[in-house]
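Give me structure tokens for this 55-residue protein.
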Amino acid sequence: MENFLAILTKPDNIPIAIMLPLVIYYCWLALSQAFKHDELIEQGKKNEVYDRMIR
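Here you go.
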């Protein structure tokens, strides 16, 4: 674990360490919105998908 932290905190790797949680967060956000939109389409409310996207 100490070696992992030593490598992770080197100046070259700090942007990668910051980017990883951001990528995970935005992937989660996109997938959660996609599932919500899929539910609306299944309920026959296809016209509401765009309205929710621009909110």
